[in-house]
Amino acid sequence: MTHSANTHQSLWKHPDFLRLWTGETISLLGTQVTLLALPTIAILLLHANPFSVGVLVSLQWLAFLFLGPVAGVLVDRLPRRRIMIIADLGRLVALGSIPLAFALGARTMFQLYVVAGVVSILTVFFDVAYQAYLPALVNRPALLGKGRGADRRACPRGPAHSVDRRSYCHHG
User: 20 to 30 Å CA-CA from 89: which of 24, 104, 123, 163?
Assistant: First the structure.
């Protein structure tokens, strides 16, 4: 169920946005840990050589290169929320196979390659669905923080802060 937030309503009072934001935060944390953990597992526990680790890291990013346009077309035709849920559950299962394989004594680089590829593919679909779902969930003025001083704290600041974002966030 989706509904647009009132322009003057804080996103912190928008229940659907809060559920999405919480889920995305947890998902993003898991993604960042995975990007570091898979190569670390390969190096420290499987004693992988530099070439094998390079292949593993490449598999974590290749899906973005090859599936991005295709994922966009599919996401536009399917329920976005369901895509995000299935992608997150799929990543959970794929990543959960690593400790299971270790417990069963079946740890291999091939398994890490498969996990990296599957997680990468599912991440592409999750990210595309998320980018399309957010504007459908919350109206543009609420997303951009127009007219609400308290929500300006969430806008990025600092050296990487672009000129374009300044107009959206009302500072500078």
Answer: 104
